[in-house]
Each structure stands twice: as C-alpha cells, then as structure tokens.
Amino acid sequence: MALSIFVGLATIFGTSEGIRQSQAMARRDEHRSRRCNILARCTKSSQYSCLVEGKRLVLSGDKLYVDTGIIHDEPFGHPFSGYFLPYPETKYSGLVSSISDDPPIMNWVYIDRETYEVKFGTRPHAEHNFNGPFDCTREERRLNFGGWEGFVVVKEGNFGLCILIAIVII
Q1: Residues 113 and 130: beta-carbon distance below 8 Å
Q2: If you classify domain 36-166 with CATH, what class do you get?
C-alpha cells in the first residue's frame, strides 16, 4: 500500500515537472521567434558611452552599424528587425533580419571570417563565414555568439557611425 502511494506521488511529481519544462521551452521558443530590435549597451563608461548607449543597430551596405544619430535629417540604413532561426543543415540557431520592409526580405547575420565584422547577406554569403550559434543570455536581454558576449563597437571614418565587431574565440 505504502509503495503504491509512493509510486503514485512520484508519477504525479514527474508528470507535473515534465509539463512545467515543456511550458518553459514553449515560452522560450516563442520569445526567440518574435521579431526584435537590438540596442547597443556600454558595460563600461568611456568618452564614447553617450554616443553609443541605447542607440539601435541598423543594416547598411553589408554591415551592422550602431546608428549614433550624429548625422541629423539623413536616414542611415534599415533598422535591425530580426529573430533566431535554425541555420540550415546545422544543429544551432542563426540570426536573421529584415533588410527592407517593402518587399519584406530577410538576410542572415554572420561574422566575417577575415575581419570579424558583423555583416548580413544571403545564405551563400553566410555559409563560408561564422554563421552561428547566435543566442540570448539567460535573461533574454543580451545577444551572444557561441555562448559568449564578445562584441565591441569600432568607429568607422568621420561618419559618427560605429561598426559592430565580434571578438571570436577559436
């Protein structure tokens, strides 16, 4: 009698734990498939923090930039609007973003194998570069690549725009 009660309680506990885990996975998958924008955050204070902090990422040419907003009245690039998607023929997630609204076109985000710049392009462009795994931190607040939050911002020219560069540990 006591053994059957113990087995019954263990079954109920195991079932409820399985349901809770599947609900958590469903919430995480739903969050990852929702389109989002990316804002730059400075973890350390510097003379450039005010130019970068809270600014959004935009796509221009074939690179991702932090739009510092220094050039007023001149739109620069397309705002990043993307989500995680399983990268074809791999076991990890890639990152895609729209590159235009009309017509809606999506491109893969990848890290250039030579320069480590964060770029975007069609699948043939992304295939021979570092195309994943992209993910979020546990708090679902910060982007990481290969489990590491290794991104820096580098000023390019006198445009007041900054390229996003990944620091990749190989």
Answers
A1: yes
A2: mainly beta
